[in-house]
Amino acid sequence: MTENGSGQGQFQKREGSFEREPARRVFAGEFRDIRYQFKDSTDEKSPTFVLLPTGERCNRALAIGTLTEKQKQGDQNIFYRGRIVDPTGTFFVMAGSYQPEAMQQLARVEPPQFVAAIGKPSVYQTPDGSFLVSLRLESITVVDKDTRDEWVLDTAGHTLDRLDALGKTPDSLKAIEEYKPNPEMYRKMAYDALTQIRI
Amino acid sequence: MDFQETAERISHKITAKGQTADKQRIETKLRRLIDEFGVAPNEAERTVTNELMKELGIAPAQAGGSGGTEEKKIAGVMPGDWITFEGKVVALTSSPSPAISQSGIIADDSGAIRFVIWEKAKAPLLKIDTWYRIESAVVDEYKGIPNLKIHSGTLIKELESDASLMPAVLTVQDLKPGIASVRAKVIQEWEVTHERMLQSGLLGDETGTVKFIIWKEEGKAGLEPGAVYTIFYAQVDEFNGRLSLNLTSATCLPEESDIEVKSSETTITGSIVSIAPGSGLIKRCPVPGCNRALSRQNYCPVHEIQPEFNYDLRIKGWLDNGDRTWSILISRDAVESLTGMTLDQAKEIAENNPLGMDEVFLRMREMVTGRYYTCTGREIDGRILANSCSRVTFDPGRHAALLNRAGSVN
Fold this sequence. Notes:
The complex is a heterodimer of chains A (199) and B (410). With 199 residues, chain A is an alpha+beta fold. Chain A has one domain: CATH 2.40.50.140. Chain A contains six helices and nine strands, in the order αβαββββββαββααα. Chain A is globular and about 45 Å long. The termini of chain A are far apart. Chain B has four domains: 52 residues; 89 residues, CATH 2.40.50.140; 87 residues, CATH 2.40.50.140; 126 residues, CATH 2.40.50.140. In chain B, the strands form four sheets. Chain B has a five-stranded mixed β-barrel with strand order 2-3-4-6-5. In chain B, strands 9-10-11-13-12 form a five-stranded mixed β-barrel. Chain B has a five-stranded mixed β-barrel with strand order 15-19-20-22-21. In chain B, helix 5 crosses helix 6. The longest helix of chain B is centred in the first third of the chain and has 15 residues. The radius of gyration of chain B is 28 Å and the shape is globular.
């Protein structure tokens, strides 16, 4: 393909109706269980999804909790890792030089703080066969406890919605096949999270 | 291509002549002409109409002379009809072309229609507020609106009548392309975007809202925002499936009473997951009617370098409820209440900081991103133009309901 031709192709792509992928609301306890990653088409630019065990595709997630730890790593390629804790577990987040804005935001936050993290989920398998699910940050900002509480309500609501739809959508049928999820476990996770915020 | 609408129109014309036609059959005929033979849709419509008329023994509309004309009321006319009627000239509009000697709106007690007198018709000019008997005029369609054409074969007789006309006033919801009268409130006034434009904005009544526009013309005054008007003989245009009212030649009478306007606004609650460059403190083009955002070098895409810009605040970003993301554009008032930063404070920050306007953007990004808001505004093509935004506050009732829902065992 000529340079000109490929340029035009990109232009047309941008002209098409672009729909931004929503940021899914998912608890750390479920996020940690993610194993299955997929693409809808073989096109290099098509988005990568992970499949949530409760049965929904996820290309982006919003996680709000307490940043408990952060660490700068690497010499040549600097990147930051952090841990964000919600009532059900821990999100592992990272931001590298490909996410300069988010990396600088994370560099400024001194834990512990309530933070809102938006990013792309990805699944790694370590050489010893265990899985690591992490959130590659697009943005991380300091928020207040009210926002954290609101997120717990929001995430509990979405988790329950997904459980209600389990077995009724193509994505959730795939999730049943891949994960054989126990709905009661995730329901209890949502319940426990709700009991941990103010009464 | 959709043949249903065209078939519907043709079937209407047939029904209007007291006959019936099978819509399925009309569609088949249309499809054959357009898909198989590449006939232009309007030509196909004409062909099929004529074919059916002939088949059903209906006199063709285009017959020369007065044989095909009918005594009719304006409300019932269709493009292609030759009609004879009595009506009153209720508006005259400036003629857009020397080929047209006069244009305006003529009404009877059933409705109103735009008329055009072509120069070559050599017809006498009509006077406003005068009744005429018009014989053998033809109805065609211009930009989707029925249009009465007065040609050299049309007979015009002035009538000795001063009967007053009370047009039927429609609700916004019932508007369709053509000429109509409505009673509505001016709920928004928008920036004029063209030098020939006098005013544009949004009108609303109990049933809905519609955009309006008034072009500059001698002696024409704009509408008062917040006031209620009865608007006689406005032109209803359709563009991209959306209606708008052209009030340039309409008569707008202010009213004392108020009306409850149906909200046309969308309200979305979610988290602002991203704010985009171009948010915060921005510069706008000072040329009247332009108001475009300028580049950092004060460049307006239309008016070039504008050193005497105006400052404004806005946030462009994404509001996300976990299932869907909306592009959102938050206007200055809402930005000020959302961030607690006024335009003046933002200017001060920009002037006293090495990062300038970027500092305002960065501060707003930290303040807003990840938090929950309820935003209200008009939704256009998936983008919400928010004029109010409020923080979501903790709702104990919702908390309790979720606990019940999660705790119940199915």
